[in-house]
UniProtKB/TrEMBL annotation, chain A:
InterPro entries: DnaQ, Ribonucl_H, RNaseH-like_sf, RNaseH_sf. One of its GO terms (cellular component) is cytosol. GO terms for molecular function: 3'-5' exonuclease activity; DNA binding; DNA-directed DNA polymerase activity. SUPFAM superfamilies: Ribonuclease H-like. This is DNA polymerase-3 subunit epsilon. PANTHER family: DNA POLYMERASE III SUBUNIT EPSILON, PROTEIN NEN2. The keyword rRNA-binding does not apply. Residues 28-202 form the Exonuclease domain. Keywords: Exonuclease, Hydrolase, Nuclease. GO terms for biological process: DNA replication.
From TrEMBL, chain B:
Residues 18-139 form the Cyclic nucleotide-binding domain. This is CBS domain-containing protein. SUPFAM superfamilies: cAMP-binding domain-like, CBS-domain pair, Nucleotidyltransferase. Keywords: CBS domain. Residues 177-233, 242-301 form the CBS domain. Pfam families: CBS, cNMP_binding, DUF294, DUF294_C. The lineage of its organism: Bacteria, Pseudomonadati, Balneolota, Balneolia, Balneolales. Coiled coil: none annotated.
Amino acid sequence: MHTPSFVDRYRQKFEGGPVYPPRIGDATFIILDTETTGLDVKKDYIISYGSIKVKNYAISISSARHYFLKQKKVGREAIKIHQIINVENALSLRDFVKLFLDDIENAIIVGHHIHFDIAMLEKAVRPLGLKKLLNARLDTRKLAIRLEMGKHAGHQFIPARDYGLDALCRRYHIPLDDRHTAAGDAFLTAQLFLKLLKKAKQKGITTMHDLMT
Amino acid sequence: MANVIVNRVKEYLKQYPPFSFLSEELLQTVASEVEIIYFAKGEYLFRTGETAKNHFYVLKEGAVVLTEDDGQGEPVPVAYCDEGDVFGVRALLGRRSYVLDALADEDSLVYAIPTPVFKRILTENNRVNQYFAAGFASGQVVVKRDLSGAELATTGFSGKTDQRGLAIFSGQSDLHFSGDVLSCAVHETVGQAARMMSERKVGSIVIVDKQGYPRGVITDKDLRNKVIAADKSYSTPVKEIMSSPVITLDEKADFATLYLTMINHRVHHLILTEDGSDQSKVIGIVSDHDLLLSQGNSPAVIIKALLGSDSVNELVRLRDKAELLLEYYLENEVSIPFITNVITEINDIIIQKACELAQAKHATDYPGVHNLKFCFLSLGSEGRQEQLLRTDMDNALIYEDPPDPKADRARAYFQALAREVVSILARCGFQHCPAGMMASNPRWCQPLSAWKDCFGDWIKTPDEKALLHASIFFDFRPVHGDASLAEQLGHHITTMIENNELFLNFLAKNALLNSPPLGFFRNLMVEKSGRHRHKFDIKRRAMMPLVDAARLLVLGHGIIDITNTRKRYEKLADLEPNQAELFLEAGKAYEIFMRLRALEGLKAHDSGRYIDPDSLGKLQRQLLKNAFYPIHELQRIIRVRFQLDLLGI
């Protein structure tokens, strides 16, 4: 099947060579969040997407992105949660995927419960001929648990509600602004990630290898 | 670009000057370029000598301390940054490297603002420009937003600054001094010097000796007044007409130093030399004109005008002008030592002028006694060089002991003189002291011997009234006339105190009368009755305890000639190194209170003494909380040192 050039461009980023540099300070992380019509990957789809990058232990505001996708029909439930209806400047799926892939390149994808966002994003890129996202990924929830409870903490001892985004933000003194907008949540998660990275550094984790495994 | 995120950053920055001066559009541009960096406690943001980064910082969360090396490898804190403070602006000033270390004192989140975008703003936005200039002109390393708050800064002086139209973002970087200094040898003639000045089209020439060390300066004005008008030959050697000695500084001197040196020495030119003394080579010259150009609206202009004025109306007008300057400085967070220095200088000149005008008026009526030496003293806050607002005047006059037969006439003359001075000062807006502690009161206009007896009585019999007087009169400072009279009085006082040790114990008891407001934050201690009910008396609760403690402790060391509270604490820090930190903190705390009181006073058009706790922001409260700490500690030390519990007094 013929794939658009931006998909090829994206694939090329992963040809040969390590996916990430050896040192955390040299790696580019993209912290992202999606707002969706619901929680069912099969039925639901992305309404909006927000992301921001962290490099060398700093968040750069200029890297922030916030996209809205054109909707065929919007579920009532989602409107209730996100208060999003069709907005101006909403992108077609194709335009969104192009912007998205050109922006993330081979950065490490970071997010809270990131597997869900990745599943939703993969559903979005699939019609354009890309089966899987190739980026390395890191879950802030898992990272927080690892840093606070240790690497081998048993699941049964981890109180789920202590590791939600709200709870973590409160614990790390991050004001809960713009919650439940894709960009707002991405920004909160980025601030959380920045603090977690520093905590990791204090524990001697400075290489990507140590961070990712 | 994601507007939600940029807006979030924008909304944060907008709260604080200088960002509060920017248009929405500009702020948007700035916000979208910000980087957010997190530093763990103990990490350095930058180190001395490091190349200045391409951004400066706003502290979003946490605490950062700026330190410098004490010369022995130990870091000494220079400034503490709180949330909203701006620091690390070397790059913005066009400097290549940092001169301080910035250490995260707690885990800290900072916004890094890129300098290129901000530099453009500086050239375009007058307000921002002035905000920075005011801060850096005074040698500040952190642009504090602590007590002025965004609200004041945005509304407080609108309409005034925009009209000034000055490009004063000079700080240190835009002050151009001439490095190519025209000079000639001491034995050259005036004619030759004038020719050289004419060829080079400059208004001054430095006279140097064989080694190239500066010996004097000749200006256009000297040629006019001392040569042509004086009908001197052009072959007169330059050394006969040069102004000498010259005042020298080194090229590292910052704006504030240059400024104050010129003001204090009343000179128009400063010579920059290699090591800053007049025993080294000349490397540049700075004129007051250069400085004024770089500063625009300046106290130097007011002081110059004051020195040249000879009518009371003129003094009144200029003092009102100084008040505007004060307002501007306070709102723009110029450092308190700088402001007090300038305002004290202005007030002192007014007093000197008032004395001269009064002398001119009355001297002829009192032949035979008008030549007696006298000294006009400022007391209380003016004596401590701490008066910002024109609060009550407290002053006194000492004159030399006249021979007996002339005693009555001398008294009459000096009383007339003092009455005149006080009335001029009143016209200049200084209020009469309700307790009558003014030179116009015959009790406080006395010959030296009477003053010695007076202080002697207070020291020997420290009753309530004596202690009240002590708290005002012990902070005397000679402002006009023969300072040796004040010195003799000071010497007498220290000897008296040595011989009457118990006096200090009584003074100590008095210093503890005003306790700081315990439980300030649980429940602010406010006045319980009267007109100022529910308000907090910052003078009595916060400032007086610090002033009283400083006075007591330096007197305990036999020091009477330092009256300024901050300087007293600095001296104490020198004398008692193991308590140095506390003393320095106390000095800083005092300045915080001074600023708050002055701002409050300007807002309410009164002395600013009573503060409504509800009007304080959260950060102001935080700042006050920190500032109260040294008071408790000092009072504890006083209690132990003067054995108040044992003596039972």
